[in-house]
Amino acid sequence: MPETILEISHLRKLYDDLRVFEDLSLTVHEGEVIVIVGPSGCGKSTLLRCINALEDIQGGEIRLRGEPVSKENRNLQSIRQKIGMVFQNYELFPHMTVLDNIMLAPVKAQGRKKEEVREEALDLLKRVGLESKADSYPRQLSGGQKQRTAIVRALCMHPEILLFDEVTAALDPEMVREVLEVILDLANQGKTMLVVTHEMQFARAIADRVIFLDEGRICEEGTPDGFFDEPKTERARKFLNTFTFERKGAKN
Amino acid sequence: MPDLGFDTLLKGKNFARLLGGLGVALKISLVSVLISIVLGTVLGVLRQRENLLLKAVMKLYLEFIRIMPQLVLLFIVYFGTTRSFGWNLPGETAAVIVFSLWGTAEMSDLVRGALISIPVHQYESAAALGLRKTQTYLYVILPQAVRRLIPLSINLITRMIKTTSLVVMIGVVEILKVAQQIIEANRMSSPNAAFGIYLTVFAMYFLACWPISILAGKLEKRWR
Questions:
Q1: Between chain A and chain B, how many beta carbons pairs sit less than 8 Å apart?
Q2: In this complex, which of A80, A92, A139 lies closest to B130 when CB atoms are compared?
Q3: Is A223 in CB contact (< 8 Å) with chain B?
Q4: Could you report the per-residue pLDDT of B93-107, keeping only the tens digit for each?
């Protein structure tokens, strides 16, 4: 069994009176790609935000390689450096060039050498086909290019785990593919990833394990083929049905 | 062509005196602007805090300054304090106090607005990268806030320069006062001087404020 990277146990999360998670547990092993699917409002994004301590939690524990991830932990900054997060709306820093966006945290937060980071950043940019955009500003990029930059920015920190929060939801359809291919490539390199997505074809292709989240609980989990072909729960079946279409009237 | 009285400018040291007057006006504005920027930034950041007392005091201060015409403020500080508190403030000092009070209030509003306009996601995205709070402010938040702030604060600076013309009323000899003196002194020899001299005053104000406006426009374009 590969080593455990992330362990969520009995997570409890409330937004004022709204209960998001009551008792959620999940273990992520090294090199595993977990795709989280579920209806909107089921807590997928909140889960990722909890893992990065962007949200307060009201109970339970989240540990990254045994170290607790919480706002109380003095080492929070260094733990967050090991958790790469890519947001739905890119969240690049608009006043910096692509290269500076990528280099900021490795140089300032990790204290690495500028030259070394620049070399790595340019190399990573090349791999996602953006080497010519290093000196552009985010506003000069298309949505897909921005998101690829955001992925490179997360990668350059050498994270142990990558969190993708509906990274293609804000993109035009033709740009979705270029971003998904980058993520697929990362999966092939054996990166550990938690992916929240609405792209079911993609989920099926990339996942080692699919988790179906509904009303703050893990309703079903399994292999992609098992989940998509023969969902065990009625709830999951209904959810998957929303992605297929059928015309009831006569078509001839 | 009617006699516009420009000849008065060339008499004696009139032109140099006008420039000196402009210098006084600019000195008052510059000192007030510097004080306003420093204090306004501090207050603007403080206003982000969730402290009810602080909020109430700031609100009172801002509303007071906003409602009060600058001229009335000048009168209170210059004439009012002399009798009531026995402070014998020089006119220039009174002017700097009033313009700093006003500028600080406006500036704190601008700073607060600029900070609020930075989306929460920018803080989160910096935090997710493992940057510390101070680093987040230093490299991510403040540079963006300053970019939004500069065009607005330059606008405030030009308004402050223009409004210094009010200090004539508390006896400070600045450009407008010098202009009046020149016109008075030449009433007999060139009765038309008012037009030419005031036009020159206008041109001087314009030349002082215009480059600042241009700079604001340039920065705005560059940092869109």
A1: 62
A2: A80
A3: no
A4: 999 999 999 999 999
Are the Cβ atoms of A93 and B125 closer than 8 angstroms? yes
- The domain spans of chain A are 4-195
* Residues 92-131 (B) with a CB less than 8 A from some CB of A: 121-122, 124-131
Fold assignment, A4-195: Rossmann fold (3.40.50)
Report the C-alpha gap between A8 and B109 in whole angstroms: 44
pLDDT in tens, A27-63: 999 999 999 999 888 889 999 999 999 999 999 999 9
- Here the ipTM equals 0.88
A15 in contact with B, Cβ within 8 Å: no
User: Domains (ranges, CATH) in chain B?
Assistant: 7-222 (1.10.3720.10)
- Name the nearest CA neighbour of A65 among A160, A189, A195: A160
Segments in chain B forming alpha helices (H): 7-10, 14-46, 52-67, 70-75, 81-85, 91-116, 120-128, 133-135, 142-163, 175-185, 193-222
Which chain A residues are closer than 8 Å to B144 by Cβ?
93-95
What is the predicted pLDDT for the residue at B128? Answer: 94
A48 touches chain B (CB under 8 A): no
Distance CA B129, CA A55 (A): 15
The pLDDT > 70 percentage for chain A reads 98
